[in-house]
Structures are given as structure tokens and as C-alpha cells.
Predict the structure.
Amino acid sequence: AARQRVCILGSTGSIGTSTLDVLSRHPDRFEVVALTAHSRVDELAAQCLQWRPRWAVMATAAQALDLSQRLRAAGLGTEVLHGADALVQVAGHDQVDTVMAAIVGAAGLAPCLAAARAGKRLLLANKEAIVVGGALFMQAVREGGATLLPIDSEHSAIFQCLPEDRRTWPQRIDHIVLTASGGPFRSRDPATLAEVTPEQACAHPNWVMGRKISVDSATMMNKALEVIEARWLFDLTPRQVRVVIHPQSIIHSMVVCRDASVLAQLGTPDMRVPIAYGLAWPERIESGASQLDFLGLANLTFEPADAQRYPGLQLAWQALESREGSTTVLNAANEIAVDAFLNRRLRFDQIARLNATVLERLAVPADAAASVEGLLALDGRARSLAGELIRTGRI
Ligand code: NDP
Ligand code: MG
């Protein structure tokens, strides 16, 4: 059989490198045809030398020139492109079968839409893209005939608990329960959260991830984004998506059925499992992850998410129950807040407050969610407002 031709958007990141790790175990099944990065030229050069893709994409022309000279010197024929248009071009190219969307942030929306419209197998790690795109994202998937497979571990878990035929989902599902680890500050005195540093926030107890999602896990804005992501992926009402803290990260999420039966997916916390599932679905292939050692497991415990400690979490339902486009606003504010926190311009405890303020203050036009342009304009306005609030200290 012909090998699946894979494009990895964000190949130098945490999900990108885990994806290459899974691919390296199945050389007969997959071929890497495009790799993209943003700032890490050295890493992308090394990946190109190993994988010999047809295309490589960097952010700027200068980086692309640098990369292309290095690859040429090594005798590679890789075509080096640059910029946001190049991401769209490779994601939708007819020589690509599968797109791993592993860019962080709303920057990944345009290439995701291109892959959706071109009918690709679209492996979605980039949750911000679906949070920003909402109904239009799902429409592009349907109209393009794409196969959308969730990579976020919780959503992969839900997907693994459901039958292939989507039409049976509504009558089957009462609600879903997304599990959350609670992040590094689950037991910390909430009064001391103002002093938290970026280094502390990025030290996650169970997962090693990029810096943005690590901060999101600590504030639980990550779970808020996942609630919104689940609403769209599984066509649920906001009330049908619930969250429980499960500090061990062994149960990756659960479906509570109409008959009160609960289906769960379990495994060691290793992103190569959902990645391998997305790559091989509906088959299963070796992922490289270790198996669960049941007898060595500590207790599996559950606790509610405390609204005082995680004030950002409830913003998911607030945004979902407001005018469409509100989730775009929430995501944009959060991207600005996290960046400011990582650059020490915003305190940790101010992230959720800033998000709430922007969500409250920004008026969403009635037709904002009618087009991608409308959503991107809204995204831009939310970013400006968030930036202004940080600069003027009116958080
Ligand atoms: P990383 O920060 O590790 O990687 C992000 C990747 O995207 C890098 O290759 C980076 O390039 C590239 N990139 C960053 N900004 C841009 C931009 N503006 N335009 C184009 N490319 C860009 O993030 P993760 O791998 O941790 O996360 C990726 C996505 O997957 C996120 O949406 C995250 O929420 C989601 N996810 C991640 C999980 C994890 O375990 N890490 C788990 C579940 C979901 P460069 O490195 O060259 O700068
Ligand atoms: Mg997740």
C-alpha cells in the first residue's frame, strides 16, 4: 500500500517531536513530506536532514534563506518556504494526505482550515484553532470531507469511547467528563498564586509540554479551552461538558451514557498514544508509550475544580452561553495574558482576571461569527484591548 504522506505543522514543538517519534517506528506506513517551524531554525534543519521532506517552512525570509543554504550544502532538495501563506499552501497541498496541526495558538487556524477544506485527515492538537473557528471550523471539515481526529488526550479519550458512526452519538451521550490534573498549583495556598514564576508554572507534574499550554494547565484555562473544543468536536451543549480533577492523569476522560453506564479511556500520560491513534485510526499501531502497571498504580482519585483557585475555568461556559464569537475573544485575551505572564509583565493571578475583563468589556458584533474574516477581526480587537489593559494596569 502507498505510504501516508504526512505534513507536520509545528514540527519543532512538543507535539511535533512526539509525532516524529511515532512516525519513526513505522517507516513502511508513513512518509514525512512537510515540516514547519517558527523560531527554531537549528531544530528544523536537523529534522530535515533526518526526514528529507519535500517542503520546509520557516516564519521569515531570512530564516528560510539560512535553512535553505544549510540544506543545499548537505545535498538536500527540500524546497524552503516562509510565512503564513506557505503554511496554508503545504497544509492543503494535493501531495499531502495527513496534516498534524501542532502549531500553538490562533496562528494555526488558517492552515487548519486549508487542510479541512482540502479534505485531509486532520489531526488536531492545536485546540486554539477550533476554539477560534467554532462552527465555521466544523463546517469547513464537513464541506471539505475532511477526517477530523482529536489529538488532545481528553478528546481522543472521548473519541475512543464512541462508535464510528457519529449519527449515534446524540442518543448515546448524556454528558462527558473531561479529567484535569489540576496542574502544579493544585495544593498551593491560593493566596500565594500572585508570586508564581513562569518557571514554576511550566513545571507540570504529569506532562512535559510547550510553555503556553503549561501555563494554561496551571490556570486551568487549558481545560476551559478543552470544554469549548469538546462542545464543537462532539456537538454537545455547554451543559453536557463537565470537568473533574483527577490528579493522576490515568483516566483521560469519560462518556456518561443515557443508561448511566460510564465509558473511560485509560493509559500512561504519554501524548504518543493519542498521536498514534490519530495516525492509524481506525487501526491501532505501536506508539512507544509504556503500558499501565495496574498493581503499581496509586489510588485513582477525583475532586471538584475549586472556582477560587481556578477562576478561569468557568469562563468557558460563560463564553459558550454568550453570543458566538465570545470564545474567540476569550482565546485571544488568554494568548496575550499568557505571553505577558511569560515575559513577566503580568502576574499569574491576573491571567484569569484579564480574560474575564476582556470577555465582559468587548462587544461582540452580531455577525462576527458569520465569516472567518469577522472572527479574525474580533480576535485582533480582543488582543488590542488585552494589551491596552496590561499596559495601563487596568486589569
Ligand atoms: P510548542 O510550543 O512546544 O510547539 C509549538 C510549535 O508551533 C513549534 O513548532 C513552533 O515553532 C510553532 N509555532 C509557534 N508559534 C507559531 C506561529 N505563530 N506560526 C507558526 N508556527 C508557530 O507547543 P506544544 O507542542 O506543546 O503544543 C502545540 C499545540 O498542541 C497547542 O495548541 C497545545 O495546546 C496543543 N496540545 C499540546 C499538548 C502537549 O502535550 N504538548 C497536549 C494537548 C494539546 P518553533 O518551535 O520553531 O518556534
Ligand atoms: Mg488536553
